[in-house]
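User: Modeling request: complex.
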Amino acid sequence: MKIIVLKFGGTSVGSLEKIIKVSKIIISYIKKKYKVIVVSSAMSGVTNELLSKTKKIARNFPNDEKDVILSTGEQISCALIAGKLRDLGYMSRSWLGWQLPIITRGNHSSSRIIKIKKNKILNYIKKGGIPIITGFQGVNNDFRITTLDRGGSDTSAILCAKFFKAEKCIIYTDVKGVYTTDPRLTTNAKKINKISYEEMLEMASLGAKVMQPASIQEARLNRIEIDVRSTFSKTTGTTITKKKNIFSNNTIRGISFTKNDAKLTLIGVKDKPGIAASIFKPLYENSINVDMVVQNVSAGGKETDLTFTIKLEDLKKTEKLIKNNIFIKYRKLIINKNVSKVSIVGVGMITTPGITYRMFKALAKKKINIEVISTSEIKISVLIDKKNLKKSVEILHQEFKLNNSL
Ligand code: ADP
Ligand code: ASP
Ligand code: MG
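Assistant: Request completed. Predicted assembly structure:
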């Protein structure tokens, strides 16, 4: 049995016309004798609308009920696809996460899929049916509905490919593939033909929304090849695959960025061993993720300035935790919401010296100030003023010759 998993994102099912288009794509694979398993997101904007309702009605809307609401978006799009396919003469039905079931573990709103029960779907496809499975959701051990992190339908699709042993997993989205940088920021962005799991994971984690980071983790662990392509164009997309399959001379493969960071600086912190731990402990206890950190010792050596970044959505909570922290003394807290993190990513960095220098020099030439730096083996990130974002990405794109990407 040749099984293929097709995943459609929010924009791809964003209107009735688009759902008709999606149905035709599904049928084209049936005609090629594939057994098709479809995973769909909610129609674009729907999950956000549902989320805003929970925020309006209660200050602390419970997470378990939030998942019940958020998961309904996928129910609508899946039923519409199944209904249209039946209207076109094909056997199809929607399957909600709990109906398979898709079993998850972990906290509400950020659960992980641990198992997908296969028998119902396998029986159905053997009979010629086309199952349309809701992405982004599952059910936990307490029989409560759960959701994955935002953008989680990608992970649902990849795990369907794993559990149903699909030959292929195709992610249909609103761009023609994975680009060297977000094509909505600059027209210089170039489509990449093949990218490694490692680079895609790094790009996604650093802000490239096209794939959810957790989905790439799963694909890499389970060696599932992914094609990313457009619902609205016939052009071939991007294959996400293992390093061995990639032939590229480019040291840097892509540039990612974020627009939702906040920078906090504590000026004049009394310097003593353990001070950074005292600052970060309450943040950790409140599940606030600290991203970039830099510490400068003052001239006298008795005080230090500590700068770090967090997600903008955690800012209010973080500010409160710092102000209420009796274990630290500092002179001033400065908050900056107008920052962006720009990251260059590429496995070639490991073996090529001088990349950091080239990145900093290119930015300096355009008088772009670097506020914080962080690095790993295959990425360098810098924090800059948000107003310089486009300029920075374009200059780095040019510096690392990403126009020549394959
Ligand atoms: P879907 O609804 O299909 O899941 P998403 O909105 O989650 O789609 O992801 C697609 C979007 O990702 C694109 O519209 C694009 O703006 C954005 N994006 C960010 N970085 C990249 C990149 N490097 N390559 C392609 N798209 C990117
Ligand atoms: N509908 C969900 C979201 O908006 C899941 C997804 O789109 O993948 O996050
Ligand atoms: Mg998405």
